[in-house]
Amino acid sequence: MLITGTSTGIGMATALAFGRAGHRVAATMRNPSKAPALGEIAERERLPITVFPMDVDGDASVRDGVARIDRELGPIDVLVNNAGIERMGSVEELPLAEFRAVMETNYFGVIRCTQAVLPAMRARRNGCIINVASVAGHVAVAPMAAYTASKYALEALSECLAQEAKPFNIRVAIVEPGIIDTAMAQSIGTERAPSPYPQRRRIASLFATVLKAPVPPSLVADKILDIAVGETAQLRHPVGPDAAPFLGWRQSMTDEAWVELGALDDAAWYDRIEADFGMNARPARPSPSEGSP
User: Fold this and answer.
1) Which H, E and C letters describe 267-292, residue by residue?
2) Which of 107, 147, 152, 270 is catalytic?
């Protein structure tokens, strides 16, 4: 099996879950030398995990990586498209290059990997492709347009792929995590440069609040393992305690109501979060002594 983006977070946890369950794993990442943790754990625990360099942004890297994995480990029966990046900023302020970078990894990277493994799966009439999307694939929250757009696109791609692959006995599943304790989520929870748009600082505060009760990446990894080894035909799999509530929250509103909510001023927005989720996401106010010489 092949898992992309295994240097940290959900990808690493997924590689370990499969390896500890006895499955032979090809774990890929851009720069293995810069992220040795997975390899060290696999060696220490004697897990059947082999780390391969592969950049999902590059045609040649994916083509050569998949060919090497097939040559060294055998046919790929499960593909977990996990590699992903995030960029946070308003549509006005975030450079176009950042939008392109997110789409290149989160969307086109999935297509590259899928196209590389699908012909052999189709010929064998057997396989499973699991795409790690997000609740953000259904819930568009400013200022996460770049990330959210990539996940909306991934949801649509996966739905089409599932229709094409099913006659060849290839299962496709979409995993939709909520807010999980990863480096990416922690980065979103960090305030950045000042902006005329208030959404960035309050989304940062929301993530920071949720991460006070962290949900480990292993929860998502266990779901991916269950899907791969089972026989479920279910397409979408929300994961995490806040996934279903976030999805239900969006589904309960009209498009216009959702826009009005996102356009509220800070005070009204925090009040609404508290009313809807029982969560005080307001940033902590510094004590009078903080910042004093």
Assistant:
1) HHHHHHHHHHHCCCCCCCCCCCCCCC
2) 147
